[in-house]
Design a protein that fits this description.
Structural class: alpha+beta
Number of domains: 2
Shape: elongated
CATH superfamily of the largest domain: Cupredoxins -  blue copper proteins
CATH class of the largest domain: Mainly Beta
Order of helices and strands: HHHEEEHEEEEEEEH
Radius of gyration: 27 Å
Number of helices: 5
Helix content: 25-40%
Strand order of the largest sheet: 3-2-1-5-8
Amino acid sequence: MKKKWLHAAWCTSLLAAITMPTLWAANLYNLPHGVTPVSHAIYGLSMMAFWIMCGIAVVVFGAITWSIIFHRRSRHPKPADFHENTVLEIVWTVIPFLILIAMAIPAARVLIRAENVHHSELTVEVTGYQWLWRYTYPRWKINIYSRLADSSLRIAPLHSGRSPYSTPHYLHAVTHPLVLPVGEKVRLLITSKDVIHSWWVPDLGVQMDANPGLVNSIWVKILKPGTYRGQCNQICGWGHAYMPIVVVAKPKAQFLSWVKHWRKRHPQALSPATTPDP
């Protein structure tokens, strides 16, 4: 009896050693929880799939470990002689099918929710260029061209002699961020004027391709003020690394104040949008 308890304790320790690094890696490399309802839903789906896979791993590797220990050659010199088990094969076919259905239903709901841009309170047009972004607020006729910040451009050349660590947010800072109000559903109409780009901000749970000649739509509702960074996620030429995205979320009163000041300070940006200089 004591020997069996020692075997059980050894198996438990081995399973713990296998699963603990997995849990640590999940915290280090996991999806961000984000600041939008969609990002929260995506994070929930990710964690659901993660724990299901952890459970499957425990069962599978536990069975393998148990078989190695209790059915090793020293304990059973003569191997067992058996054939297929129809009931067992049905069970391990039905269970994965049910698991996939259980994962697919909430995933489909989140996908439908993420694509529902109806009842938006604000619309912003996002246009990709080689290699910058243009943000247009049709309600106020504001056009903003967002380029890589000069602080990064001065360091980017190979022989600049300056370290990337000498400037904050190297390759992730822009001249003008996209400013959005907190707590409002914002519809983003995303397209491109030249090649395929992709507008991606992980904390917002948003990634949408910007295709020339096609307008894709998606929505965000930022729940917390702050600065959220992303980048073009589609290789679009030698300047692909120079297309960062910065979104600044402000409370509605501060956002309206920003709109007022921007229109006052940049009257030239109120004219119809034109193709920017490269």
